[in-house]
Amino acid sequence: MLSLEQAREQILDAVQPLPAETVDLRSALGRFTAEPLRSTVDLPPADNSAMDGYAVRAQDLASAATASPVALRVIGTAPAGVVFDKLVEAGTCVRVFTGSTLPRGADAVVMQEYVKQNSQDPSSVLFLESAPLRDYVRLRGEDVKAGALLLEAGEKLTAPRLSFLAAAGISSVRAARRPAAGLLATGNELREPGQPLEAGAIYESNRLGLAGLARQAGALPKIYPLVQDDLGATQAALELAFSECDVVISTGGVSVGEMDWVKAAFAAMGGRLHFWTVSIRPGKPFAFGCWKEKFLFGLPGNPVSALVTFLLLARPALLKLQGAREVLTRTIPATLSEPLANKAGRRHFMRVTLDERGVARSAGAQSSHILSAMARADGLVDVPPKATLSAGAVVEVIPWD
């Protein structure tokens, strides 16, 4: 039985990024860069004003004060987007606005709040304070120089990063293709939500939850019909899903029971199984295998086990398929409000809630079939075998996203 780290290492060693494609920046949210990106321009592209006010020569206002204002003649107005074509010479200024290109000869901007009209001379204005050199001036290239590295390969395109790239003149990026993830659920007892529920049957919930987690990880989930506990039916379902998807994520049918057909069906279609048990709780029965250049993630049937093993083992693979640099789930530090005890011999990923103060507590009963605790939980805490994490201990919470 493999440790979590051994299982994850085997999975990531087998997975390589999918081919890259060109993506319009407007559709690139959540994608991962397939190559480094460099700026096409200086940012800002020219010296410009950071305020509404007046562009001046700082030396002209060295003596300006409220008690002794200095008058400068206004030689024009420079709206944002217009380059003023005259030179700011001694004794002159130009009306500017936020984003206006700084006129030639000017080296500072005075906010309009510190300027008043000159009643003695309408062609000039009075400055009530001095202007330090380059005050309220955004210098060309002070943020980014043309050709500078903006993002490395494998970085996630968040909304702020998309804005950054657009400002640098980039309209499209190369990104690894998003993996299609086929979702199967096996079991004679399963029924679709909304159907009549006869004795012995249960509503299937894994595919919908896993589709949400897969979508959060950047994959394109596709939900397939329920699969009966039968070798032929299971093989047919796997073959269909593999023909249409890059990865297949199944739930149920991977343990050692007489009705567990996923491993046998996968082998019958030519798949190669790498391993099928991991020393974690919940989620011991977990199968990983390869079919051609595609991958099977055989998750347990219990809903909590399915979602936990997806988060710990399948999600990193989906991210690597997209070329992500960071594939391991982030963690959030928190303080336990109560003890978390694990009496078993396997690591237990326990469901916890997390409040705005960073306090974590058990989400409820921790059995792998308890859906209410999973629904309340904000994430998981890794509790070592035969150990108790005491109240007040600082832990790392693995969030669902």
Textual characterization of the structure:
It is a single chain. By secondary structure, the protein is α/β, with parallel strands linked by helices. The chain contains seven helices and 28 strands. A six-stranded mixed beta sheet has the order 7-4-6-5-9-8, with no helix packed on it. A six-stranded mixed beta sheet has the order 16-13-17-21-20-18, with helices on both faces. The chain has a five-stranded mixed β-barrel with strand order 22-25-24-26-28. Strand 8 and strand 9 form a beta hairpin. Helix 3 packs parallel to helix 6 (303-321) and helix 4 (231-244) crosses helix 5. The chain is elongated.
Task: Summarize this entry quickly.
The chain has 401 residues and is α/β, with parallel strands linked by helices. 19% of the residues lie in helices and 30% in strands. It has a 6-stranded mixed sheet, with no helix packed on it. The protein has a 6-stranded mixed sheet with strand order 16-13-17-21-20-18, with helices on both faces.
Task: Outline the fold blueprint.
Elements lengths: L3 H11 L5 E5 L12 E2 L9 E2 L3 E4 L13 E9 L13 E5 L11 E4 L3 E3 L6 E4 L9 E2 L10 E3 L7 H9 L4 E5 L3 E6 L4 E2 L10 E2 L2 H11 L3 E4 L7 H14 L2 E5 L10 H7 L3 E6 L2 E2 L3 E7 L2 E6 L3 H19 L10 E5 L3 E3 L4 E8 L4 E4 L8 H6 L2 E5 L3 E3 L4 E6 L2
Parallel strand pairs: 5-6, 13-16, 13-17, 14-15, 17-21, 19-24, 22-25
Antiparallel strand pairs: 1-12, 2-11, 3-10, 4-6, 4-7, 5-9, 8-9, 18-20, 20-21, 22-28, 23-27, 24-25, 24-26, 26-28
Helix pairs in contact: 1-6, 3-6, 4-5
